[in-house]
Design brief:
Blueprint: E1 3-5, E2 17-19, E3 34-36, E4 61-63, E5 72-81, E6 90-94, E7 100-104, E8 114-117, E9 128-130, E10 139-141, E11 143-144, E12 151-153, E13 161-167, E14 170-174, E15 180-184, E16 188-191, H1 207-212, E17 270-272
Antiparallel strand pairs: 1-2, 3-4, 5-6, 5-8, 6-7, 9-16, 10-13, 10-16, 11-12, 13-14, 14-15, 15-17
Length: about 280
């Protein structure tokens, strides 16, 4: 999908760009696959804010996506649709039993295409197979991490993972972050990369456009008072103390360089950690 730059009629539009939606072929009409999305504004069940800088935004509906999509033969792509809840587009497919389902749209998928999901499916864009049946070096997306749970890895716009090695019951996959990890050979993955690759090149251009997406302003800690943030206070432009104290969260915890990932069983599946700076 290409990017369209808007005319500089105003200061905001001077640096604004949007998708031209050339891949989109239809609007959502399958009401049974849409459910209402409740606005939580970053609050938990106690009404406390657990995720900051959330709230407002345009009203949305949740699309019910079939992340598993296994053991399906002869599913026909009806159209490619826009999803406001993610960067990737969705493909509406007609299943052999007459029902319909949403799947993550693979790059190059067009209406009328037939996609299959089985161990004997062709190595073809949009088809879904176990990793053991996919040749080494193939680009894949929507990878299962836990067997039977459905697609969990490489689902965002333009995401591409690659099979780099096979050994025993595990397959080594290079993820978009640069991390190389082992995934069980029976896990399913979709052939090809996720569509809407140009999404990362979009420039919002205005604060209002960001507010429409449900994100509220973020204020620097240095601009606050000491009671509100560990970086606040001082006369004039005070340093946050990179050497002695270091950057901190609003609650006084170390915020730069400290590892936050807990010890997990899946750590042993990581062959090479992701690249620094990503």
């Amino acid at each position: 999908m290409a990017i369209r730059t808007l005319k500089p009629n105003t200061s905001a539009r001077r640096n604004m760009s949007v998708n031209d939606f050339s891949e989109i072929t239809k609007k959502p009409t399958k009401k049974s696959l849409l459910i209402a999305k409740k606005q939580k504004s970053g609050r938990n069940n106690q009404g406390k804010i657990t995720v900051r800088h959330r709230g407002g935004g345009a009203k949305r509906a949740i699309r019910l996506i079939d992340y598993k999509f296994t053991q399906v033969e002869g599913a026909k792509v009806i159209g490619i649709e826009y999803d406001p809840n993610r960067s990737a587009n969705l493909a509406l497919v007609q299943l052999p039993d007459g029902s319909q389902a949403y799947v993550i749209a693979t790059s190059g998928l067009k209406p009328g295409r037939i996609i299959n999901s089985s161990e004997k499916a062709e190595i073809k864009i949009g088809n879904r197979l176990p990793l053991s049946a996919i040749p080494q070096g193939t680009v894949v997306n929507s990878i299962e991490l836990n067997l039977g749970k459905g697609a969990q890895l490489a689902r965002s716009a333009g995401a591409r993972a690659q099979i780099v090695a096979k050994e025993g019951n595990f397959v080594s996959i290079k993820l978009p972050s640069g991390e190389v990890r082992n995934v069980h050979a029976s896990a399913y993955a979709t052939i090809g990369g996720v569509g809407n690759e140009a999404h990362q090149n979009i420039k919002l251009g205005s604060a209002g456009r960001r507010r429409h997406s449900g994100k509220r302003p973020t204020v620097r800690g240095k601009a606050m008072n000491p009671v509100d943030h560990a970086h606040g206070g001082g006369e004039g432009n005070t340093s946050i103390g990179l050497v002695s104290r270091g950057p901190q969260t609003p609650w006084g915890k170390t915020a730069l360089g400290k590892k936050t990932r807990r010890r997990k069983y899946s750590n042993k599946m990581i062959i090479r950690s992701r690249k620094k700076g990503r």
